[in-house]
Specification:
Number of helices: 3
Strand content: over 45%
Number of strands: 8
Largest sheet: 8 strands, antiparallel
Distance between the termini: 22 Å
CATH class of one domain: Alpha Beta
Radius of gyration: 15 Å
C-alpha cells in the first residue's frame, strides 16, 4: 500500500491549526478533490470526492483524536481504501507544523499510474498549501475538541 507523507508550516498557534482541521465539512474549500463531506456524528464522516474525473463516495471513521495533537482515520465503507493521520507540532507560539501521513490503495489503471509517478504526493502537498492559506486567513472558532481512542 503506497504511503504519502507531506508537511506544511502554518503561521498560527497549534490550537487554531487543529481547530480548522476538525471542521471537516469545510474541507471542500481547500482540498481540491473533495466535493462534499457530511459529518454524521463525532467520529463518522461521509465523503464524495472527484479523482481523475471519477466521482467516488466513502465513509470514514476517526480512530484516534487528541485535541491539538492528532486526528487519525480509516475508510470503513465505500469506493476507496485509505487511512491516515494528521499531526500538529508546535514550532513557536504562532507557528505549527502540520504533517499528513496517508496510506492508500490505488484502484484502476490511472490511480496505479498516478501512484507510480508520485501524483498522490503532489496532490497532498498542494492541498496542504491550500490549507495553509485557509487557516492563516480563516476565523479560529473551535471545532469539536473531544478525544477518541478506538
Amino acid at each position: 500500500m503506497p504511503q504519502i507523507t507531506e508537511s506544511v508550516d502554518v503561521d498560527v498557534p497549534v490550537r487554531a491549526a487543529y481547530d480548522q482541521w476538525t471542521r471537516f465539512e469545510e474541507f471542500p474549500t481547500f482540498l481540491d478533490e473533495v466535493v462534499t463531506i457530511t459529518q454524521v456524528d463525532d467520529t463518522t464522516t461521509d465523503w464524495t470526492v472527484n479523482v481523475g474525473g471519477q466521482e467516488r463516495s466513502f465513509r470514514a471513521v476517526i480512530t484516534e483524536q487528541h485535541p491539538d495533537e492528532r486526528v487519525a482515520w480509516t475508510v470503513v465503507d465505500g469506493e476507496t481504501e485509505h487511512g491516515g493521520v494528521v499531526t500538529f507540532h508546535k514550532l513557536a507560539e504562532d507557528k505549527t507544523r502540520v504533517t499528513a501521513q496517508i496510506d492508500w490503495e490505488p484502484s484502476g489503471f490511472l490511480e496505479h499510474l498516478g501512484s507510480a509517478v508520485g501524483a498522490g504526493s503532489h496532490a497532498v502537498k498542494k492541498d496542504l498549501e491550500n490549507y495553509k492559506k485557509r487557516v492563516e486567513s480563516a476565523p479560529t472558532d473551535p471545532g469539536w475538541r473531544g478525544d477518541v481512542n478506538a
